[in-house]
Automatic annotation (TrEMBL):
UniProt GO molecular function: 4 iron, 4 sulfur cluster binding; metal ion binding; phosphorelay sensor kinase activity; protein dimerization activity
Superkingdom, natural source: Bacteria
Annotated function: Member of the two-component regulatory system NreB/NreC involved in the control of dissimilatory nitrate/nitrite reduction in response to oxygen. NreB functions as a direct oxygen sensor histidine kinase which is autophosphorylated, in the absence of oxygen, probably at the conserved histidine residue, and transfers its phosphate group probably to a conserved aspartate residue of NreC. NreB/NreC activates the expression of the nitrate (narGHJI) and nitrite (nir) reductase operons, as well as the putative nitrate transporter gene narT.
Any Gene Ontology CC annotation: cytoplasm
Start and end residues of each stretch annotated as Disordered: 1-20
Catalytic activity: ATP + protein L-histidine = ADP + protein N-phospho-L-histidine
InterPro entries (alphabetical): HAMP_dom, HATPase_C_sf, HATPase_dom, His_kinase_dom, Sensor_HK_TwoCompSys, Sig_transdc_His_kin-like_C, Sig_transdc_His_kin_sub3_dim/P
Record-given protein name: Oxygen sensor histidine kinase NreB
Organism: Hydrocarboniphaga effusa AP103
Annotated CDD domains: HAMP, HATPase_UhpB-NarQ-NarX-like
Compartment(s): Cytoplasm; Membrane
Amino acid sequence: MRSHERDPCTDAGKASEPDGRSGRLSLRLRINLMIAGLMLVFIAVVLATQILATRKSVLEETRASNSVAVRLLSAFISPDDVQSNEVLRATLQRLGRVRSTEIVLRDALGQVVYSSPPSTYKAGRSAPRWYARLVSPAPIEEGFILRDGALSLQSNASRAVLDGWDDTKRLLLLGLASLLLVQPLVLWLVGRATQPLREIVVGLESMERGAYHTRLPKLPSKESDTIGQAFNRMAQAIEDNIDARREAAEATVNLRRSRELANLVELRMEDERRQIARELHDETSQSVTAIHSLALSLSRRELLDEEARRVAGTIAAAAGHLHGVVHEMIPRLRPLALDNLGLADAVQNQIDDWRMQHEGLRIEGCVEDLPEELDERVTLAAFRLFQEACSNALRHAQASHIDVRMATDGDSLVVQVRDDGIGLPDDWRSSRGYGLRGMRERVQTLGGELAIERRHPRGTRVSARLPLKVSV
């Protein structure tokens, strides 16, 4: 197993930066922002709950304080009270300040005789106005009509609001401190959780650069390890596929070279056959003909004794037989008509020879639409296919009717030979005979196609498609 290691500090820095290629944030940063956002939402919910609780608390305290003050003063004041403002003011001064309540005493002219002293609790401080507006209840006012003035009570929740503000501020600071302390821990945990993903990304980048031997190690979590195993299987499949393609390419090159070599060998062999056929026709055949003529002439002379004439007759007969064998060999080696007259005439000459050699054989040939200048290799391959297919039908299939067709079809030369013989044997595909294998190799060397199949109810059909233009 091969793995790729990277600097975690570098990875952490890159993970927190936006992905420059796609313009999107990294997964690690998005998870961190999501967790931070959830924490901020939680803090906001807690603060909202605190503000609602403070509002309710301030309202209850204000009502309670105002109620206590009203009952307390009611104990001192009654409608029939004849106390003077001075006596009542002295009583209020001894009472002092009542929490969350402002007490004001006025005379008959409306002048303030007494007001509650300022609160000493958290003196000099007050809550922000926006906060006070959120939690402060509507003012509560109560009053007493006196004989020579009036006494009024009005709620004042500033100290309770300030207490609520202090509690809210402490809660806010605690939440922010928790966020600042927890966020680095969350960042570290998310980094550890996404580390396998970074290793997978590194592996993919290596694959992109062509390092198909890359393999991922066993990853910590179940999900990431499943992805890692799938990655390794994919990498192995790609590597196997590349190896197979490389081997196929090498095999293709070797096959092309083998075909080129086979083509050169075939051309060389045909050249040698052509020369041998020429020598047999021009030299050997004429010499045998001369020997046959001389021996025949000697066998007819009366001056020779009987034994000499018999020997001369034997020589003449042997020379005649040799002449026939030579003339049968010449078409098999290289039909001279193929060089002198062309493919169509060479095929027709061969058909005429077979008709004379095989009495009762019905062989038909049709060669048409051939180009004027046909590649020599294509010409030779077409003739050899025709020759081999017909020879097989005559020697092995016991055919009485053979049909030969040659014609161009687009950029191909189509050769077809059909017979009514006994057909192919059951094991013909596994046969190691040179004839069928030689035909197939000859066609493949030129880049053509060969089909050999049974005919119904009997017979065989050999079809070949050869390209008119053959690359070197």
